[in-house]
């Protein structure tokens, strides 16, 4: 009797049809190690306060577009089901083969483009889902950028540059550019998307507010917190008016604005905001939830800047335990909290402990984001500062040389971070101290 064998993809779950990738639930402020620098400047009669706190860690790790629920979007894979069909008998499953989310969505996108054409709406939707999966897969975000760029061009031609779907893709592309550390391109993409959404949807539309928050986050990572803070405040005020004070997006915006205040050096204001926010998050989500831990991490960063070191160390160690239990030890949020713990240890003159923590953070960020990502570069800079106090000045100088090159590449010539690294490097080469 004839026999036919079928190989049929079978979905395990269906990703959310709408909503951008959400990289984090807030923006943890990251503190730079500048104690020795403040001390040197004071000795020279300079009353400056040293380096400002670093921007939020990790691309993506900024405010970016948010999902529509409390949880982060997770990609789903599928199965290849092999069945036997015999005349006169019911179809019988022989076996099924697990298919990863990336493989599953690649098959869907290829099939849709082959059957429907590359610019058919269903084919474009399948390409978007593949791009989302790649963006959420470690080491594949650069490939996601390529798919998003293709998708944006196709939608521009088919739907027009101001269509809501085109703008949704532009927002997701901007978010992935931020995640991959392409900050200047991310700023341009966010700014263009925000402007078009404000014109077509209005300033109060939730998509417009997400893009405003995304633009603010990348401005902070570019070291332009004073530009970002008014945007974050506006997002918070509009969301509060539209959604009510207890909506999850309002709580997220409150955390982001408090982080922005921190990066502007408005530490007391930031502390007041976070002291009011953390209990609300604990009541809604619990103490160890990602969103709560994010706000607690920001509070720890504020305490570092206020020189309340013992309190900061206690808070940050608790935050690290929370992040390790929820997102894992190798997540960017965990690395940010550990960086800030190193800042506390450095301020308490526990230099070797601080250097050990930063070496671990640097190794983790290299593995997660690559050698050239902005968060990796800032960690290298922080480690150099600590190594100076440890007495390993040759190693510190080597790290700073690389930071100078990387800051020029990331931010363009003459950025304050580049100039600060150059000044420290010159001081080391002059044999000071």
UniProtKB/TrEMBL annotation:
<dbReference type="Pfam" id="PF13424">
    <property type="entry name" value="TPR_12"/>
</dbReference>
<protein>
    <recommendedName>
        <fullName>Tetratricopeptide repeat protein</fullName>
    </recommendedName>
</protein>
<feature type="region of interest" description="Disordered">
    <location>
        <begin position="1"/>
        <end position="76"/>
    </location>
</feature>
<dbReference type="Pfam" id="PF13374">
    <property type="entry name" value="TPR_10"/>
</dbReference>
<dbReference type="InterPro" id="IPR053137">
    <property type="entry name" value="NLR-like"/>
</dbReference>
<feature type="compositionally biased region" description="Gly residues">
    <location>
        <begin position="56"/>
        <end position="66"/>
    </location>
</feature>
<dbReference type="InterPro" id="IPR011990">
    <property type="entry name" value="TPR-like_helical_dom_sf"/>
</dbReference>
């Amino acid at each position: 009797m004839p026999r036919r064998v079928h190989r049929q993809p079978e979905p395990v779950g269906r990703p959310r049809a709408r909503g951008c990738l959400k990289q984090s639930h807030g923006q943890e402020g990251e503190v730079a190690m500048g104690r020795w620098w403040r001390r040197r400047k004071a000795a020279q009669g300079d009353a400056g306060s040293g380096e400002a706190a670093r921007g939020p860690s990790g691309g993506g790790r900024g405010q970016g577009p948010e999902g529509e629920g409390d949880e982060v979007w997770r990609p789903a894979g599928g199965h290849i089901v092999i069945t036997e069909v015999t005349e006169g008998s019911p179809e019988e499953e022989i076996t099924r083969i697990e298919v990863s989310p990336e493989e599953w969505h690649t098959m869907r996108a290829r099939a849709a483009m082959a059957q429907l054409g590359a610019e058919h709406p269903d084919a474009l939707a399948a390409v978007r889902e593949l791009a989302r999966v790649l963006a959420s897969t470690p080491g594949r975000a650069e490939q996601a950028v390529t798919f998003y760029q293709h998708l944006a061009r196709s939608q521009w031609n088919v739907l027009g540059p101001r269509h809501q779907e085109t703008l949704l893709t532009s927002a997701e592309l901007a978010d992935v550019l931020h995640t991959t550390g392409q900050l200047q391109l991310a700023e341009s993409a966010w700014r263009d998307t925000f402007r078009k959404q404000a014109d077509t949807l209005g300033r109060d539309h939730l998509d417009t507010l997400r893009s405003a928050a995304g633009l603010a986050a990348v401005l902070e990572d570019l070291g332009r917190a004073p530009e970002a803070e008014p945007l974050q405040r506006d997002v918070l005020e509009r969301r509060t008016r539209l959604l009510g004070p207890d909506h999850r997006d309002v709580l997220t915006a409150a955390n982001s604005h408090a982080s922005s205040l921190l990066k502007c050096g408005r530490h007391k204001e930031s502390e007041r905001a976070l002291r009011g926010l953390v209990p609300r998050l604990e009541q809604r989500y619990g103490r160890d939830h990602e969103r709560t831990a994010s706000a607690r991490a920001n509070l720890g960063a504020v305490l570092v800047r206020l020189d309340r070191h013992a309190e900061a160390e206690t808070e940050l160690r608790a935050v690290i335990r929370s992040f390790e239990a929820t997102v894992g030890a190798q997540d960017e949020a965990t690395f940010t909290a550990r960086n800030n713990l190193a800042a506390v240890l450095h301020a308490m003159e526990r230099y070797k402990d601080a250097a050990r923590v930063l070496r671990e953070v640097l190794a983790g960020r290299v593995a997660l984001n690559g050698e050239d990502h902005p968060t990796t570069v800032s960690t290298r800079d922080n480690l150099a500062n600590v190594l100076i106090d440890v007495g390993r000045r040759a190693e510190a100088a080597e790290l700073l040389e690389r930071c100078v090159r990387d800051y020029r590449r990331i931010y363009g010539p003459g950025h304050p971070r580049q100039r600060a690294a150059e000044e420290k490097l010159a001081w080391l080469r002059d044999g000071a101290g």
